[in-house]
């Protein structure tokens, strides 16, 4: 019979078990993000996330327009940041490919992530705001915190994928190959809302957007026909992938064998 030293079994157990340990959790808090020309950037535990804001005009072909330049303050034009997080105040500019309207008119401002008709310009077009996040390594999202703007709904849609989206066509084309999740608002309160979201696969690209008034491809309409969502993205709680069970059956079997052999050796020595 082949005799395997107990120390060798213990080493094998450790080698099998270590790769399956859960990764370090990461908190991406967009209130502390750094602004580039048209992006916000944030790093957590060695993983860098970059967010870029766009509008999908819900008209023929549902074209995607953007990105928008960054700015500071919830009422500032473009892709903005304030004490509640990041949002979009869409106005025509060179980088926005001259969108058909503006989200500022007549004393009203849509400064969060929303999906409402333009307030000025072509007011027949609904502008669905969303942000695309790119991560430098695969992550698995656990929770998403959003803050409601002007007591409006905080429902969101999320899409995750492993490769970069094609934004040159409509929003449906951009979501090809992505998994889409529709998360409704908790209508019993306002302000901060934490969406629990456990993706079944790691990803490096993620959309976060406001639900439209009517379904668009896999994106569901705003729930209950209530006022449209309007929110700021505050933070994400993520864990670097891949996520696998803490200890598999092989490692568990080796561990049990080690314990039995150690017990027998202790009995023989006595």
Written overview of the protein:
The chain has 270 residues and is mainly beta. It is built from three helices and 19 strands. Helix content is 14%, strand content 40%. It is globular and about 45 Å long. The relative contact order is 0.20. The model is unreliable at 9-22 and 242-247 (pLDDT under 50).
List the helices and strands in order. Answer: HEEEEEEEEEEEEEEEHEEEEH
**Residue-averaged pLDDT:** 82
Tell me how many strands there are.
Answer: 19
- Secondary-structure-derived class: mainly beta
Strand content: 35-45%
Shape: globular
Set down the secondary structure blueprint:
Blueprint: H1 6-17, E1 25-29, E2 34-35, E3 40-44, E4 47-58, E5 64-65, E6 70-72, E7 78-82, E8 85-89, E9 101-102, E10 104-105, E11 108-109, E12 113-117, E13 120-121, E14 126-148, E15 156-161, H2 171-174, E16 179-183, E17 192-196, E18 203-209, E19 230-240, H3 249-269
Parallel strand pairs: 6-7
Antiparallel strand pairs: 1-19, 2-3, 3-4, 4-5, 4-14, 7-8, 9-13, 10-11, 12-14, 12-19, 14-17, 14-18, 14-19, 15-16, 15-18
Helix pairs in contact: 1-3
Structural features:
40% strand; mainly beta; 2 domains; twelve-stranded antiparallel β-sheet; 270 residues
In short:
This protein has 270 residues and is mostly beta strands.
